[in-house]
Amino acid sequence: MHGRLKVKTSEEQAEAKRLEREQKLKLYQSATQAVFQKRQAGELDESVLELTSQILGANPDFATLWNCRREVLQRLEAQKSPEELATLVKAELGFLESCLRVNPKSYGTWHHRCWLLSRLPEPNWARELELCARFLEVDERNFHCWDYRRFVAAQAAVSPAEELAFADSLIVRNFSNYSSWHYRSCLLPQLHPQPDSGPRGRLPEDVLLKELELVQNAFFTDPNDQSAWFYHRWLLGRADPQDALRCLHVSRDEACLTVSFSRPLLVDPGTETLLLIVDESPLAVEWRTPDGRNRPSPVWLCDLPAASLNDQLPQHTFRVVWTAGDVQKECVLLKGHHEGWSRDSATDEQLFRCELSVEKSTVLQSELKSCKELQELEPENKWCLLTIILLMRALDPLLYEKETLQYFQTLKAVDPMRAAYLDDLRSKFLLENSVLKMEYAEVRVLHLSHKDLTVLCHLEQLLLVTHLDLSHNRLRALPPALAALRCLEVLQASDNAIESLGGVTNLPRLQELSLCNNRLQQPAALQPVASCPKLVLLNLQGNPLCQTAGTSEHLAELLPSVSSILT
């Protein structure tokens, strides 16, 4: 056995590694403790830089120690000569680069480098661009480095055209680069600014067609990579809709005015976000949301004084001015009428085509054709299926409704992990279509039964609805947004899976509520219903709470104003 190298056993190796880790941990803990002690004592000198270097060199994600280094450097700025300070900064930049080699995705290291360069009188931005290029050569999808490059490019006034060329070079090398596609979406609107395009930035058609050709090459090359699909959706994305007052409703019986907007907004007390003018005279009112939460909401209402509803005059004129959006709407309440409203006749383009833009139909048709061709080659590609659905929604949601539902079935089979999300998206589209049909028919009754709905959305569009049928779906709750339906008189929601009634709150006209065959467990779940003053009929048959002894008596106490409660 003499002269042979002894080979350690696996147990000996494990023990040696354990002892090595323990030794490193002791050094790490002692260095950290020393830093904190010096910081607490106000001893912010170069020894702290040395101690933190030992720790950050091994673990660059210790954010508190980066703060310590900044405190030391700020103090040394006042103590060192310009030459000494330049040497110190050069060493700091070198140390940062070594930390990035340990962890190229260290938030603290990149942030510290931004901070340091921002304090220099004449930073070498060209060197920083080279550093970004080196790190992106190693990992072109390092979004930390991309963020830093955007910072450097802005500071160095690099032209958007130069940056676009750089982003192009990395996209061509590897299509699977979300950061590079995203940067492209930021640069193109700067190179091709369009009037009234909004913050999302629309592109002229010739540029758009070239981009569509590029991104099609990407997803035909690798159909399963999501980055190109997201960029494709951005290309076809519409500009933000213009601010608008969708509907204005005045009720004489409730002495209330309700207004709905094109987007959620917050009306703070004491501000002039909304102005109410009655018969050409400003009226000070307190605005609130229908659900009482006073959060950003597309629907706001206010109580009206009796004088503004005097039935002795032939009519009253109400005008709401939205100062932030610079828009207004007016409605008239005639003598002898219980309500009055004003609503623009909205098209599908104005209301719901927000996933994709209203580009020329030839462009969208061409994209739909290409995606269907790809789907034939890749029948189980979820990104392709979803894009087909969105394109059909952009072209004509009602014309393609049946085909869209078929694609949803295919997509759910292909991507079962996202079945719940797809059910909600499908429900959203179906509700949009129902609202559009109701708009075209100009009726106040909406039938949404037997549609397999899992979620309710766009309820702010139903401000004037009096009868709503939600029965035979898969709803688990009536959401708070339902409180916006101030004109609702009859609500049918039987044969769902409803457990919560948070939206049945302060509905001033609700008279009949059917909740048969749901999952209401306790009488306390019906507490929101007590706030509906005109409710006379409540049907709860088939709910678990009906099996509990004493439920009828409990409900009678909870809802004394409801004359008929069926259990």
What does this structure look like?
Residues 245-346 form the Rab geranylgeranyltransferase alpha subunit insert-domain domain. With 567 residues, the chain is of the alpha/beta class. Among the domains are: 245-335, Immunoglobulin-like (Sandwich), CATH 2.60.40.1130; 358-423; 444-565, Ribonuclease Inhibitor (Leucine-rich repeat, LRR (right-handed beta-alpha superhelix)). It contains 17 helices and 15 strands. It has helices spanning 10-40, 46-56, 63-77, 82-102, 107-119, 125-138, 143-155, 160-173, 178-191, 205-221, 226-235, 348-351, 361-377, 382-395, 401-414, 419-441, 551-558, and strands spanning 245-251, 256-265, 274-278, 281-283, 287-288, 297-303, 315-322, 327-334, 339-343, 445-447, 467-469, 490-492, 512-514, 537-539, 564-566. It has a six-stranded parallel β-sheet. It has a five-stranded antiparallel β-sheet with strand order 5-6-2-1-9, with no helix packed on it.
CATH class of the domain at 444-565: Alpha Beta
**Count of helical regions:** 17
- Kindly estimate the percentage of residues that lie in beta strands according to DSSP: 5-15%
CATH topology of the domain at 444-565: Leucine-rich repeat, LRR (right-handed beta-alpha superhelix)
C-alpha termini separation: 91 Å
Low-confidence residue ranges: 354-358
Largest β-sheet summary: 6 strands, parallel
- Rg to the nearest angstrom? 32 Å
Q: Please bin the fraction of helical residues.
A: 40-55%
Q: Write the CATH architecture name of the domain at 444-565.
A: Alpha-Beta Horseshoe
Strand order of the largest sheet: 10-11-12-13-14-15
Overall number of strands:
15
Q: Let me know the CATH homologous superfamily of the domain at 444-565.
A: Ribonuclease Inhibitor
- Quickly give the structural class: alpha/beta
Mean pLDDT: 87
Shape: globular
